[in-house]
Amino acid sequence: MRPAVRFLSDELIEKIVSEGRELICKLGVEIHNKAVLSMLADHGARVDINKSRAYFTQDIIDKALESAPDSFKLYDSLGNEALDLSGFKVNFTPGSAAINILDYKNNRIRPPTTADYIQYAKLMNKMDHIASQSTAVVPSDVHERISDSYRLYLSLLFCEKPVVTGAFTIEAFEIMKELQIAVRGSKEELRAKPLTIFSCCPTSPIKWSEVTCQNLIDCADYSIPVEYVSMPLSGFMAPVTLVGTLIQHTAETLSGLVISQLTSPGTPVLYGGSPAIFDVRYETTPMGAIETMMIDCAYNEIGKCLGLPTQAYIGLSDAKLLDAQAGLESSMGATLAALAGINSISGPGMLDFESCFSLEKLVLDNEICGMVFRMIEGIQPKEDFPSQPRFEELLKEGHLLISDHTRRYLKEEVYFPGPVIDRANRSRWQEEGGLTLGERAHREVEKLLGEHEPVRLPDDIKKELAELMEAEARRHGMQSLPEIG
Fold first, then answer.
1. Counting beta carbons within 10 angstroms of the beta carbon of residue 235, is it exposed (0 to 12), middle (13 to 18) or buried (19 or more)?
2. Same domain, yes or no, for 101 and 159?
3. Do 29 and 94 lie in a common domain?
4. Judgement on whether residues 48 and 177 belong to the same structural domain of the protein
5. What CATH number did the domain enclosing 301 receive?
6. C-alpha angle 216/221/225, rounded to 5°?
């Protein structure tokens, strides 16, 4: 039996969904994109152009839900299947778009550079329990107008895993799409084997900007999967109750779903988000708060009830360093997310309210993910009945260390973490240097980076990627890109 957790009854889900639908029909959605407003009007929505507001219909929502696929797959840069986003299957991906990185050498937070991003991408190749990479940090040593596309470029050059990403501007989508087509060879191949997921974020309360609307349209035109990242803040930009926040999240996410599906029925989507409570004491949005995790797991239940695959920013920490708080919040979130069956869990490596990334935390979180995968396999009998022969052997031998049964099932039953997790007795731990968690994690980072092997993309594709990115940099006044080695 697969262990599971639920926070909402079927009856409560039905009420929340009904209220969310009513909101976008009766109060409407603020949309700052004339093409989207025109499209909605063509499909029967009432549109107030002067107020940039559209009032959806129940019929439009129903058609969007009917056309949205209940699952999809992602493929790596070589065309191999990497993620199955269906049912209760769980996949992990790092957090995204951090503007800082925790520098281990001097234990300070600073803006990331190209060199930091390359280290991250190389390390991601070795994260066995994290299926996709994300554009985790924003390099500060390139023009801000190319910082989104440049992240994708570096990801494709240094890691073969599919990428969770997003465009900061309307114009950036063009180059980001071309980078993907260069890898796949054609837009038809990209459609057949998606390489990325784009995050598209409504603005609370119940609003879509021109940029995010256009991103939805552009992704739908190329069948590039999107995750809707609604971010209501309980008690600030959303009702203080968790149910009220879930109603708002439902309204914002369904409005994005309609835009995608009206543009191109069948566009792959994730029912996602990054909501949080608002801590009025510090005026912060804690991602490690238990209530934030409860909201994430609950809207996942709503998404599954609507027949959609799901995503959440969970399994990350608000701590500023790799400390006990970081482990507590990350492991609790990852555990709840997996038990809830969230399909794409965004969080490993992330600190400080999604604003800071740590390579050392990434390797620790990879171990947390490994433990979580073992947990959701559950407990299954493996030649345990009848039990008498096993205990006869135990009584005869005095142990079962070399028993056939032990050797057959040891690695299936027990997850053995890597050296980041300390399981040695005290004397051995002291003999091996008495390393702290941070020291062990950094040692593992250095080891894995030393083992990096170049991605297996053909040289002509790498050259095309470089030419595309260099041309984009020149377009924004950069004569050259940072040296990448």
1. middle
2. yes
3. no
4. no
5. 3.20.20.480
6. 60
Instruction: Copy the structure tokens of residue 194.
Output: 């998606």
**With a threshold of 0.85, does the pTM exceed it?**
yes
Residues 107 and 152 in one domain: yes
Same-domain status, 141 and 272 = yes
In the prediction, which pLDDT does 471 show?
A: 97
**Do 240 and 314 lie in a common domain?**
yes
**Which three-class secondary structure string do you get for 141-199?**
CCCHHHHHHHHHHHHHHHCCCCEEECCCCCCHHHHHHHHHHHHHCCHHHHHHCCCEEEE
pLDDT in tens, 428-485: 999 999 999 999 999 999 999 999 999 999 999 999 999 999 999 999 999 999 999 7
Instruction: Say if residue 52 is in the same domain as residue 162.
Output: no
Q: Are residues 35 and 84 in the same domain?
A: no
Q: Is residue 431 within a helix (H) or strand (E), and if so which, with residue range?
A: helix 426-431
Please tell me the total count of domains within the chain.
2
- Which residue is listed with tokens 């096993």? 390
Query: Which residues lie across from 313 on neighbouring strands?
Result: 346
Q: Report which residue type is found at 71.
A: S
In 282-425, which ranges are continuous DSSP H helix?
290-305, 324-340, 359-377, 388-397, 404-413
- How far out from the chain centre does Cα 418 lie? 23
Is 277:287 a contact under the CB 8 Å cutoff?
no
